[in-house]
Amino acid sequence: MNNNNKIKVLLVDDHEVVRAGFRILLSSQPFIGQISDLDRGELVTQEYERFKPDVVVMDLSMPGIGGLETIRRLQKLDSDAVILVYSIHDEAIYVERALEAGAMGYVSKNSAAEVLAEAVKSVAEGKRYIEESLLPEVDDVRHDNIEHYRKVLDLLSPREFDVFCRLAKGMTAHEVAADMHLGYKTIANYNTQIKSKLRVNTAADLANIAVVLGIIKP
After folding, report:
1. Residue environment code for 24-57, b if the CB has 16+ CB neighbours within 10 A, otherwise e
2. pLDDT 10s digits, 36-79
3. All structural domains of the chain with their residue ranges
4. CB of 99 within 8 A of CB of 134?
5. Does the fold of domain 145-212 match that of domain 7-138?
6. Which residues are 85's β-sheet partners?
7. Is domain 145-212 given the CATH code 3.40.50.720 in the classification?
8. Closest among 181, 179, 182 to 169, alpha carbons compared
9. Distance CA 39, CA 154 (A)
10. What is the DSSP string of 130-151?
11. pTM of the model
């Protein structure tokens, strides 16, 4: 933490309204100091070095490189970076992937406002924070399906995982390319690589895997 013991926060979310809401919520807390914000992951490492935040609060589903790849890049830049994911995704697989990438905590956007403030304070103090409502689902995956779960996850890079999630939810390659600000050919190549790694041939196969992993509901 900085010298006045207030937590400097960097917010990363592609929705301006969400960032504005975060600012209002966090700035009302006596333990929060300066706040900076960005709308995409590509800018995070540069702003991190300039602003030197105590905590980075980050969404996962952003255009461009996405949250998981951004976490990976931050961890490569500074292995001590404190990252809290604040995401609409409350499925266990997202929590596990974020923690594995290097996040210190995970909070759902469906949670009460005070939960985010509590989470920021906790991770700034070096404590891992996972929203309580997410813990049972995460524990179930760890205990009941851990071996299969790990094998599937380890096959995909963070970027491939982001593409996989979009394809599994029914987006076309053109739609994924537009959403991630990448070329169609790039997404088509990812699509081929992902199917090869998972040993499947169709979009339906990807959807079935996503259902098993809890990414989409059956």
Report:
1. eebeebeebbbbbbbbbbbebbebbeeeebbbbb
2. 999 989 999 999 999 999 999 999 988 888 899 999 999 999 98
3. 7-138, 145-212
4. no
5. no
6. 58, 106
7. no
8. 179
9. 28
10. E-GGGHHHHHHHHHHSHHHHHH
11. 0.68
Contact in structure between 72 and 54 (CB atoms under 8 Å): no
Distance of alpha carbon 179 from its chain centroid, rounded? 16
Query: Exposed, middle or buried: residue 146 (CB in 10 Å: 0-12, 13-18, 19+)?
Result: exposed
Diameter over CA atoms, the chain? 56
Q: What percent of the chain has pLDDT over 70?
A: 88
Give the tens place of pLDDT for each residue, 104-149. Answer: 999 998 887 788 999 999 999 988 888 877 765 555 544 444 456 5
Residue 6 DSSP class: P
Length of the chain (residues): 218
Q: Which residues of 59-71 are buried (b: 16+ CB within 10 A; e: fewer)?
A: bbbbebbbbbbbb
How many helices and strands in the chain, by DSSP H and E?
11, 6
In the block, tokens 């974020």 appear at 98
Q: Amino acid identity, residue 45?
A: T
Handedness of CA 130, 136, 138, 143 (dihedral sign): positive
- Please answer whether residues 77 and 85 qualify as being in contact, where contact means their C-beta atoms are separated by less than 8 angstroms: no
Q: Tokens 């169709």, residue?
A: 202
Query: Considering the domain 7-138 in this protein, what is its CATH number?
Result: 3.40.50.2300
How many other C-beta atoms can be found within 10 angstroms of the C-beta atom of residue 135?
A: 12
